[in-house]
Amino acid sequence: MSNRVPSPEISSAANRGQGAVYEFCEFRLDCGRFELLRKSQPLRLERKPMELLILLVSREGQLVSRAEIAERLWSSEIFVDTEHGINTAIRKLRHLLHDDPSEPRFIQTVTGAGYRFVASVSTVVPALPFPVSSPPNIPKAIAVISRHPRRKQVAWYVGVGSCIFLALGGMALYRWRHRPPEVRYTQLTDFTDSAVAPALSPDGRMLAFVRGGNPFLSSDQIYIKMLPNGEARRVTDDDRAKYGLTFSPDGSQIAYTVFDSSGFSTYQVSALGGEPHLLLKNAAGLVWLDSQRLLFSEIPSGIHMGVVTATATRADLREIYFPPHERGMAHYSYPSPDRHWALIVEMNGEGWISCKLVSLDGGRAARQAGPAGACTSAGWSPDGAWMYFTAVVEGRSHLWRQRFPEGTPEQITSGPTEEEGIAVEQTGRALITSVGVHESALWIHDGNNERPLSSEGEVIGGISPSFSPDSKNIYYLLRHGEASGAELWRTEIDSGKSEAVFPGTSMSSYDVSTDGKQAVYTTLAPGGTTQLWLAPLDRSAAARKVGNPGGRWPRFGVHGQILFVETEGNKNYLERMNPDGSNRSKVFPYPIAEFQGVSPGRRWAMAVVSRTTDRDFPSVMAIPLDGGRARHICTSYCLPKWSTDGRFLFIPVEDPSRTSAGRSLAIPVGPGESLSNLPVGGIAPLAEPSVVPGAKSVRRADLVPGKDPEHYAWVNTTVHRNLYRISLP
């Protein structure tokens, strides 16, 4: 990784085509206007891919090395992972041009060297002999025009032109003087893997973080280092899922949230290391308001998590904010320096949502703060004048700021690298965040072999891929651009051939029918409304809407019925309907927190039930669709998955970490998808195969089962992050 960061300056790569207009196939590239057209229709393309396209087209047929691309596109920038940036730009160009890397029409990859533009290019307008950003030298012969008899008219034009020139120059000077200061990066850690979730001690001398790539519910360990140049030192040996690091007011303890079979609890460990001890049960995202009072999240019932304040003994407990929907979970809260306000980071059934600003004094409704996107962390300037956020907007996680209380959100960072986590320094002049990149691809395990499968793009790991019923194909959601939606793709296992199933259709979830002929999927309208669709996989007929807007997470049920999640009031219910939208009804009368899928034989619906008769904490249940007794699957939260033929049920029992892919149990299922051999209370974390006769361990927690324990796929996400101090504009 090079030590460069994106700046807003225009790259010199664009100047190679200075004013030229090129044509190739059905495309027209206007370098002067920075515009690409297909059949006279302008195409949306971000700056870096456009600059790369200009560079390649202007060098038609010639090899352009990756080193030259990096130098021309990012030479003036002080922090960019150029390798990732080049890969991303190439991927976006190929997607826009509908170019197949295995049989390229436009961009050919020269392995280990660079790229070559192989299409025939026509030059419609040649490149200008001078840079477009500066005027050419005026020949002396033209200067004698001023002595022409019409010199008064010419002088008038010259005067008007001078006024315009001076006005534009004045505007440019004003903008230059009032431009935002450059954002500068100072590296604080230098791991070959990752460091995330930064937290600063009250005196600003100690930095705590998680050594791993996952900031939320990570089984990796907590480290601490003295700033600015101390060695990182491990302080925990705790494999439980954790998040939300914070220091005690005196800086001697580090508190963090643990999630296990008993729910969410806050533990604390000495900053010098040692055994963690319980601070508060049913408490998450805890921070100190002062030496006596705490601000934290708790769950009164189900999984409905809200923010409260109380003492360490839970005395004087007072509710601050609870999400309106019972599926809402407010995981983090960040109090303002004056302790009158707090920023809330929360998620719903779809994932992280925009942050909220709430009053700690009460009497005011919560309102959105920060950009409209998936907000994952927040913070305050020491004087309370600024609010800071990391949020995913148009597919990228970056730093944002907003003046308190009702300013306009402003983006601080940009580019191919992403930021996660916020720890604001005492001076208010800088903050610490985790900076890095990630890439996701689909891999397959076939006996003793493992290999990548997916096409170029980012595989969406939050929506599990799925094998076709015959296990010959795998389906998955793939996103090609930062701002583009996810399309459903299909890859043949043997040949590796990949294709978009419904090109141009963005979706948020999907399911494939048992006969492999149809797909049901969810689309998301700009206003956030969802709609279910049914379409043949061979595109022999147009997709058609199914039911009314609002349905989510569709799955095929028995006899072609469609199961889906519907919200009524502040609760979610599992409902079903016929393929034409008729005979709509609830599958069972009680609400659910999460719909996880359906067994291949369509006998069981897998769901997280908010409350059962024998336990308060939500249970992962297998609920019979034709009536009968539901079965507990896990003693804690888990995401069970079925083999394609329904003979095995895979249950994760060990979480993945920086050093391990985790572990699952492949449990044999009886005839007719019988689950009678499961323990009555479900499978416990860390369970061994002996818990169920015939069970096998699979050395991976997050997987997509194939036909048996030797055949499966997974989304392989490579993460590289380190902690940086970022100067604030």
Automatic annotation (TrEMBL):
* Record's keyword terms, sorted: DNA-binding, Membrane, Transmembrane, Transmembrane helix
Segments forming domain OmpR/PhoB-type: 19-119
Q: Which residues bind DNA?
A: 19-119
Which segments cross the bilayer? 154-176
Q: Name one GO molecular function term.
A: DNA binding
The superkingdom listed in its UniProt entry is Bacteria
Alphabetical list of CDD domains matching this protein: trans_reg_C
State if Transmembrane is listed as a keyword. yes
Q: Does the keyword Protease apply?
A: no
> Which GO BP terms, alphabetically?
phosphorelay signal transduction system; regulation of DNA-templated transcription
The record's comment on protein family reads: Belongs to the TolB family.
According to UniProt, the name of this protein is DNA-binding winged helix-turn-helix (WHTH) protein/Tol biopolymer transport system component
Q: Which organism is it from?
A: Silvibacterium bohemicum
